[in-house]
Amino acid sequence: MRKILLPALIIVGALLISTKLYYLQILDDSWVKKSDNNAYKAKYEYPERGYIYDRNGTLMVANQPSYDIMVTPIEMSKEIDTMEVCRLLNVTKEYYIERLNKARIYSPRLPSVFLSQLNKKEFAAFQEKIRRFKGFDIIKRSLRDYQIHAAANVFGYIGQVGEATIKKNTYYKSGDLIGRQGVEQVYEDVLRGIKGVKYIQKDRFNREIGPFKGGIYDTIAIQGKDITLTLDSELQKYGESLMFEKRGGIVALEPKTGEILALVTAPTYDPALLVGRDRSNNYRLLEKDTLGIPLYDRGLLAEYPPGSPFKILTGLIGLQEEVIDENTGFTCRHGFSYGRGAFMKCHDSGTNRLNEGIYKSCNTYFANTFKLTIDKYPKSESGVNAWSNHLKSFGLGNFLGYDLPPGRKGLIPDAKYYQRYYPNGGWRSSTIISNSIGQGEVLMTPIQLANMMATVANEGYYYTPHIIKEIEGGKIDEKFTTKHYTTIDKEYFEPIIEGLYDVFNLGTASSLRVKDIEICGKTGTAENFTKINGVQTQLTDHSIFVAFAPKDDPKIAIAVFVENGYWGSRWAGPIATLMIEKYLKGTVSRKDLEVKMLTKGLKEEYAKVISGKPFSINK
Fold first, then answer.
1. Nearest Cα to 153, choosing from 243, 83, 93?
2. pTM of the model
């Protein structure tokens, strides 16, 4: 047996090796194409990225030609005139040495970017003399050409791919461009197209002698697919102009579809700043603005206390839990007493029913409603969990699932949350009563607030907000056409909507009415705290406004946050009203509001953080 075993093993091993060699050498010659040797050189042809259009067919993002100077270290001649290369490309000798060293580290045999994103004029002189600079080559690419100077946070930008991505995805090579942030990142696979490649045969002297293997491996570049966004470019530009010298966010949705009509963050920047050779310098300058934070998308990332607009949800939950109805009344004596020495102030007085509670924005009404909701259950834990689950059915306290990269969950606390802070118990409805009016622990992003208003407009359901409307030759994700229902029955939305309508007729937004448009809305003021030099400091309140219109056939739902904006009807309310009229009519009649929003801002208010001037509290 032993005599047979050893020869058998040798024979089997030989057969396996022979079979593998036959496969590699005869059947599969892909290794020849892929191997990194001196037999061929791969030249890539880069496709144009897909164009980006708005919902009305307006071209927003096109392309412009750009040129990269590439270097392959092993092909460089020792006789290259370094100083002439530097002069022609307007770079320093230190830059030349640094880029060449990086290229050698990446790969001596593969091309690396030496200088990127040159325009025609910049590379023309070098092109004339490139034959004298062996090892250097020129690759034509396309850069973005912005047709509108707005929506930078929506578009994102394109930049050079990083080494980590190259390792993960074999499609990308050093120097390739990739979408970063915004739709450029999310729809990168759609927009980028497919690179073409030509393999050039080289002789033993490293000279190009023709197509490798007759060009059988060559491919042509395929242009990226065009996409249409849900954005209304005119509304987007208008929203950004209204946020003149203000900080905050605006989100406008189409309730019937969840399509994002406008997504404004302020301050913002011109997307063209992140194109061309100055892109890196411009990005660093934007990044250094740690006060305005223009690279921070407040519409998606900023978590604010929602203030009085949250009373809409408090009322809906109270109706669903049957602790109130539309005729339930509570007496307000300029506030709500919820314990010894504990008093929630209110600007109102007298007895209010639900409708009056909404349009007067009575804190006492909704504090009572919240307390009854929690206390309906035998234990506070059960009451808070029931309240929390209702809120989460609106998409709150979680990512909404929209098709843009950044996002925050906000915060909807439940019993577990409070048990961490009160491990020995002792908390009850009065302990967390501030939640009733959107203060307390509740946090929401502007897009969550806008989606809340879209849900109210739809009387109980919403579609996941999204920015994509159409992909050339493709379909959008089914999740954007799927309804999400809340735990609130449809019948309870009608009295709330009537109250929101009366906010404009009789209440806190009566000065913002627009002729021939029935708007339902809610003003809001939220307390604002931050740490300055390690001290918890109360800043000027945020101005908040949410609305939808028209009342009986809603076509737009909107949320506006203006940081340090005093109160809802001062800044956020006018902006929301103007945006609604602009979208529905194409023009605005409230020129008084428009002029103020376009020319007045809060620059002095924001400077108080540095100047030390006192903030305006409770004004």
1. 243
2. 0.88
